[in-house]
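Aim 2 progress update. The chain analyzed this quarter is reproduced below.
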Amino acid sequence: MTRSVTLEEERLRGMEIAEPLLLRWGGGAYTYAVASGTGSAEEEISSYVTSAMLPPAPLAEAHRVAAAVLREEEDPTASVRLVPHTRHALLRRLRWAFFTGTGLGGLLVLLGVLLTDVLIHIGWTTALVVYAAGTLFARDAARSLGHGVTGRYLVTRHGSVKRRTIALRRDGVIGWNVTQWAWHRRSGLCTLTATTAGGRGAYDVKDVLMPEGLRFADESVPTLLDHFVTRGQGRTGTAP
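Predicted structure tokens:
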């Protein structure tokens, strides 16, 4: 089956390079357009109305196609120098791995005490496996986090099982959401979400320190946060 995709250029808001884990190990990626009226990549694939610009292909080719679609000399997702996130983001992911392993292992051990000793051994073995696998995924996910600005685009990257790198046109961002859960507040992290009229409609900068996130938002789209931040002595922070 052969498919072709046509998008009006004025609907284009950016590009997304998606690297599922197995495909990433093989050096490949998917290339999606972020365009208004197309919906999320997953919804489009399932309904055969897709924003995919390229089937699974070598990463270099994915970047080449993304640059060609954007009419740029280089793909912004490849040319930008991303700002890495702090160790707090790694520690948060390690805690989730620890809690998940402890929860699953503890439940099986408890059932083993009530039912059979076999479950006790399965329980502690499961906990160790989850600890090890969770630590690997946590480190990979933390290394994947990043954000940056290059030319007309802001870029954000996150994910481990499916790593996504998204370049959004800065003039296409119509709003920002700043989310800070209880476990965020203790470490000063937040999730910054760029709202745009295209693709999934919202793209995250995950687990970034609040001051750094606000600086990034202000640099990406100046004046958009003016009513919500205070400025002084080279610092940007939340307004009282």
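The longest helix spans residues 87-114. The first strand starts at residue 12 and ends at 20. These observations will guide the mutagenesis experiments scheduled for the next reporting period.
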